[in-house]
Structure formats: structure tokens, C-alpha cells
Amino acid sequence: MERLQKVMAHAGVASRRSSEKLITSGHVKVNGQTVTELGVKVGKHDQVTVDEMPIQTEMPIYILMNKPRQVVSTVSDDKHRKTVIDLLDDEIKERVYPVGRLDYDTTGLILLTNDGELANQLTHPKYEVDKTYVAKVEGVPTNEELKNLRKGVSVDGKRTAPAHSKLLSSDDKRKTAIVSLTIHEGKNHQVKKMLQAIGHPVMKLKRETYAFLTLKGVMPGEFRELKPEEVKELKRVAKLDN
Predict the structure, then answer these.
(1) CB within 10 Å: which end of the chain, N or C, has fewer?
(2) Which of 46, 77, 103, 130 is catalytic?
């Protein structure tokens, strides 16, 4: 059971605050009865209407997936490539979608949910949700080059926010290195462009963490539902814990 205004926000009717105003002003019915109090809770079998229009009251679900390569992080693909939705088994009945995107050839942690409010908060740059990537790059970055990443580099004519960067290992014989980069922005191909900007093109890229969440125990192509305490902490990170 969830509070009515949260279910409405999750269904995309309006923000939680605006949904509360719709309730108190008499625009909302639950199972045919007008509701004007904010304490009402509803389940997936309750019918909710706003100005006589039914909304989807599917209960929220939160999934952590380890995306393999050659899988697109979209609900569908016009090129008929495998999507993250294809990797979900038949036990997941809810219609979910990915929170943000990982490139076709990028692997690692991606979240899927049907909670539109949380997804919007997590992807909004002002909330600065950290994401850590590990990249195999051409060449071995110098300390000065890594320092430039920490200060921000120019990408597509704009300076990136400061990032945490670290050289994890290097292979002088093959002239490659493994670099860790933590950012809170989410622009298109950002990590690849940042490393390209310091002269070290990405050969392989994996997202290792999303906020406090890790891939521990989740193999490539596998997924798990988040635990209630993880959902609560994720909402706190996204400033939705009230």
C-alpha cells in the first residue's frame, strides 16, 4: 500500500505536491468515492481516477541490473537489438524502464523502475548522484592529466563538473591503463568524451557503482530487485525521503 499522492506522482499525473492539491480540491476518486484527505493509502487493485480519468496504479518496482555488452538500455529498439527489458524474466510483470542510459558497448550497473518521480530525481544533475566507471584506455594517463579530470575538462564546448579520477593499473608493454572515474553528471557519452579530452580514448567501459549501490553478487545479464532499505536510501539520495 502506498499513499495516494505518491501513487499519482508515480503514475505521472503530477508532482507529489500538485497531486496533494488535486486530492484536497476534490478532483480524485478511489473506487468511485471522492477523496479529499491526504492520509489515504491505495493498493494495485484500487481504481483511482482524476477528473473521472483512470490512472495506472501499478505498484512501484526497483531493479538493479548488470548490463552486458551489445544490449541497448531502452524499452524497445528499432534496429531489433536486444534491450535491457529482454533480459528480465517473466516474473517481472510490471512495465519498467531504465533510469538513464548506458551505451551499447558499455557494461555494468543500470537501474530499472516504473517510479517516474524517483527516476526523474536520480537523473537530474542538480542532485549530484555519484556514478563510478572503470575504463580501459589507450595509453597511460599522467598525474597531470588525471588532475585535469578532477578540475573539469572541456566537452562539447562546456566544462564538466569536477570528477574523482584514479589510475588503477597500467600495462606499459601494451600501452594501456585502467582508470576509475566518478562523476555526477550524465551527458551523452560523457565518460568517453572526458577521457578522450585528455588524450586517452576508451577501449572498454563499465559502470561499477550508482550512488551506494554496487554489482556485488550480480553477474553480467543478471538482475535483482532492490531491498526496501535500499529503496529508502535511494530516495534519500534523490531527496525523496519525506
Answers:
(1) C
(2) 103
